[in-house]
Each structure stands twice: as structure tokens, then as C-alpha cells.
């Protein structure tokens, strides 16, 4: 799936990944390939992006996520 | 006719001024490019945010968006004029000051008389000129443009939002220059808080895909998290716009100054050459006159 993480200052991450773990307001959750359309709010925490068995972490101060057509868009702070 | 030496000195001084203005123009041009890039990277963020907000509020029409949209009239007003820290940028700052005083004397004259209006100046120039115009600002922030990033803007926005929620102010209005292109700035008077309804209705035409989203935890909660975010983004956008507009204005002003210096130099050179020629003619006349006298 295609992932984009953007903040008002810059684009943090753009590319393919198999799994993404997010700090949701009601607890952490993960998104895999072909997830159903989703809009959710995120709280302060770490985003984990897993790409061919390599984990990358990004710190955020809250944000929103939108999943549509296998595209993940994260508006982080 | 000025003497040769006087003209020479003037030419030298105009030349050095021209050097300064053209250097300032170059600096502003490169800063403008950077400021424009910042706006461009921020634009997808704000448009996506608006889009999500729209999708959400579509189904929640009529429900109230919480503490930030609480309209309490115009009893206590905070005006936030945004200017630059430095001058030499044409009418950039004076336009803002003019608009602010216009607002105080016109729309908010009642509140001004009863002392219910306060000014929070962002940028040094507004604070200085409003003070001398008889409207002393209660607070000002002049450091923000040194490092203009989202974090610093959020700090200001959160302060303002807290004061709005505490009912210290009923209305907060931003006055800033919107960046159109390098030569044109548009003065914007924008209601910052309470959140106006038409903000979410602005982009009514691009609903496009109404997919069946799963909302986690719930629409209302997400919207509650989104509204403060969009308010912060609004302030950030205004400041970025003003920053780019400042450099655009300075670039244009300095370009004009350089052109004027060129014009002046041309005229001075002309009168310098005239004076030089007149001096040479005089000398020849004297020599010829002297030779004639010897021959006679």
C-alpha cells in the first residue's frame, strides 16, 4: 500500500509499505494491505512503518489518518 | 551648474546606494523562493485537512463544533495585525496599520471607547506604528519570524485558543497580507475565532468520492480533534502568507529603487559630462586667448 505522512512543514515519508502501526486515540492499531476506507484521529506517539522487514519510526504529536483505495494519508503534527 | 567635484561625489553616493538596493533585491528574491516553497509544502496538508473536515461535517450538519465556534457577539475583541520586523518593503506594513486603525475607528469604535479592544501585534513594525498612532498594543510577538515553523505558530495559536475559551475575548481577528504574487499583496481581514461556518462550506464543490469510511473512534470525536488542528493551520497559513508577501513586497520595492538609482545615475552622468566639456572648452578658450595675446 501507498503511504504518505505529511506535516505542515514538510513531507516526512512517502512510499510503499506492508504494515503501519499508529497511535490511535483509543489505543494503538495497525493497518495492513487492502484495508477498508477509514478516518481516524491519532494522539501523540510513534508511527511504525514496516517495509520488507525493516521498521522505521516517526514521532508525531497527534494527527489524522485517512485510508482510501489502498492509499494511506497521515496528516501529522 | 554644480561643480565637477560635487557631481562626482553625488555619482559615487548614488552608485553605492544602488549597490545596496540591488543586493537587497537579490536577498529578498532568494528568501521569497524559500517562503514560497514553504507555502507549497503546506498547501497539500491544508487542502487534505479541509477535505477530511468536509467529509466529516457533511453528515454532522447542524451540530455544533464545540467550544471554538461559540459565537458570543463582539463585546471583547482582539485584533492581530501581522507585519514584518523590518521596513523597506513599500506599503506592506503601512497598509496593515491603516486597515487596523480603520477597523478600530469604524467597525469597533464602540468597543474602543469602552476599552474592550486589545491588540496583539505579530511583527515589530505594527507594534511601533500603532503605538505612535495612539493605539498601544497590549502584547506583541516579534520573534516568530526568526524561526517560522509550525511548532512556534502552534504555541501562539494555543495561547489564543485558550484565551478564547476562557472568554477573555469574544472575537479574534487576523489582519495580514496575503501573498498573491511577488508584486501583489492582498490585505485580508479574517475571523480567526470563533470558527465561522462558511470555512467548512468553502470547498463544497469537490466532494467527489463519498466512500463508506469507518470512523474510529467516532465522527464527533474526530471532528473535535480536527477543529483545533484546522485553527492552528489557519494561523500558520496566514503567517506563511505574510512572510512570503513581505519578501515579495521588499523585492518589488528594491527593484524600483534600483531602477530609480539607474535613472538618477544617467542624469548625473549627463550633467557631469556637460560640466567636464564646459571646463575643457573654457580651458581651450583661455589658451587660445593667451596665444592671441602673445602674437599681437
The main pleated sheet of chain B reads as: 5 strands, mixed
How do the SSEs of chain A run, as a string of H and E? EEEEEEE
Strand content of chain B: 5-15%
Largest interface comes to:
A-B, 24 and 29 residues
Q: What is the 3D form of chain B?
A: elongated
What is the number of E strands of chain B? 6
How much of the sequence of chain A is in beta strands? Answer: over 45%
In DSSP terms (H or I, runs of 4 or more residues), the helix count of chain B works out at 7
Name of the top-level CATH class of chain A: Mainly Beta
Q: What's the SSE pattern of chain B?
A: HEHHEHEHEEHEH
* Estimated structural class of chain A: mainly beta
CATH architectural type of the largest domain in chain B? 3-Layer(aba) Sandwich
Overall spatial form of chain A: globular
CATH superfamily of chain A: F0F1 ATP synthase delta/epsilon subunit, N-terminal
Total beta-strand segments of chain A: 7
Overall number of structural domains of chain A: 1
Helix coverage percent of chain A: under 10%
Main beta sheet of chain A, described?
7 strands, mixed
Shape-level CATH architecture of chain A: Sandwich
Essential attributes:
heterodimer, A: ATP Synthase, domain 1, 7 strands, globular, B: Helix Hairpins, Pyruvate Kinase, Chain: A, domain 1, 2 domains
Structure description:
The complex is a heterodimer of chains A (77) and B (296). Chain A is mostly beta strands. Chain A has one domain (2-76): Sandwich (ATP Synthase, domain 1). Chain A is 0% helix and 75% strand. Chain A has no helices and 7 strands. Chain A has strands at 2-6, 11-16, 19-24, 27-32, 38-51, 54-68, 71-76. The model of chain A has no long low-confidence stretch (mean pLDDT 89). With 296 residues, chain B is α/β, with parallel strands linked by helices. Chain B folds into 2 domains: 4-24 and 254-295, ATP synthase, gamma subunit, helix hairpin domain (Helix Hairpins, Orthogonal Bundle), CATH 1.10.287; 32-252, ATP synthase, F1 complex, gamma subunit (Pyruvate Kinase, Chain: A, domain 1, 3-Layer(aba) Sandwich), CATH 3.40.1380. Chain B has a 5-stranded mixed beta sheet with strand order 3-2-1-4-5. Chain B is elongated and about 115 Å long. Mean pLDDT of chain B is 86; it is low at 199-207. Chain A binds chain B through residues 6-11, 24-26, 29, 36-41, 62-64, 66, 68, 73, 75, 77, and chain B through 38, 41-42, 44-46, 48-49, 52, 55-56, 149-150, 154, 209, 211-217, 221-222, 225-226, 229, 233, 236. Strand 5 of chain A pairs parallel with strand 6 of chain B, so a sheet runs across the interface.
Amino acid at each position: 500500500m501507498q503511504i504518505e505522512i505529511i506535516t505542515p512543514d514538510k513531507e516526512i515519508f512517502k512510499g510503499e509499505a506492508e504494515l503501519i502501526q499508529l497511535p490511535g486515540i483509543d489505543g494503538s492499531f495497525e493497518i495492513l494491505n487492502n484495508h477498508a476506507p477509514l478516518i481516524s484521529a491519532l494522539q501523540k506517539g510513534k508511527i511504525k512503518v514496516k517495509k520488507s522487514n525493516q521498521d522505521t519510526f516517526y514521532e508525531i504529536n497527534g494527527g489524522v489518518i485517512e485510508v482510501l483505495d489502498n492509499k494511506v494519508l497521515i496528516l501529522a503534527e | 551648474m554644480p561643480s565637477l567635484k560635487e557631481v562626482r561625489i553625488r555619482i559615487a553616493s548614488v552608485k553605492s546606494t544602488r549597490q545596496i538596493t540591488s543586493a537587497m533585491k537579490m536577498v529578498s528574491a532568494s528568501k521569497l523562493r524559500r517562503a514560497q516553497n514553504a507555502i507549497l509544502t503546506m498547501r497539500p496538508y491544508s487542502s487534505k485537512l479541509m477535505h477530511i473536515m468536509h467529509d466529516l461535517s457533511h453528515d454532522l450538519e447542524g451540530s455544533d463544533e464545540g467550544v471554538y465556534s461559540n459565537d458570543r457577539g463582539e463585546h471583547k475583541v482582539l485584533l492581530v495585525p501581522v507585519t514584518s520586523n523590518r521596513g523597506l518593503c513599500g506599503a506592506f506594513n503601512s497598509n496593515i496599520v491603516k486597515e487596523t486603525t480603520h477597523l478600530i475607528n469604524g467597525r469597533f469604535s464602540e468597543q474602543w471607547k469602552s476599552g474592550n479592544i486589545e491588540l496583539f501585534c505579530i511583527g515589530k513594525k505594527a507594534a511601533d506604528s500603532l503605538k505612535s498612532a495612539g493605539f498601544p498594543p497590549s502584547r506583541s510577538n516579534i520573534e516568530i519570524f526568526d524561526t517560522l515553523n509550525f511548532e512556534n505558530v502552534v504555541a501562539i495559536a494555543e495561547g489564543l485558543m485558550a484565551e478564547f475559551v476562557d472568554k477573555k475575548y469574544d472575537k479574534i481577528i487576523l489582519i495580514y497580507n496575503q501573498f498573491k504574487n511577488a508584486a501583489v499583496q492582498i490585505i485580508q481581514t479574517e475571523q480567526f475565532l470563533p470558527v465561522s461556518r462558511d470555512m467548512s462550506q468553502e470547498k463544497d464543490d469537490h466532494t467527489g468520492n463519498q466512500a463508506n469510511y469507518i470512523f474510529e473512534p467516532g465522527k464527533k470525536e474526530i471532528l473535535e480533534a480536527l477543529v483545533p488542528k484546522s485553527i492552528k493551520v489557519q494561523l500558520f497559513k496566514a503567517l506563511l502568507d505574510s512572510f512570503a508577501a513581505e519578501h515579495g513586497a521588499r523585492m518589488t520595492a528594491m527593484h524600483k529603487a534600483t531602477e530609480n538609482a539607474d535613472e538618477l545615475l544617467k542624469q548625473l552622468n549627463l550633467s557631469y559630462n556637460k560640466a567636464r566639456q564646459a571646463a575643457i572648452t573654457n580651458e581651450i578658450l583661455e589658451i587660445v586667448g593667451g596665444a592671441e595675446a602673445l602674437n599681437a
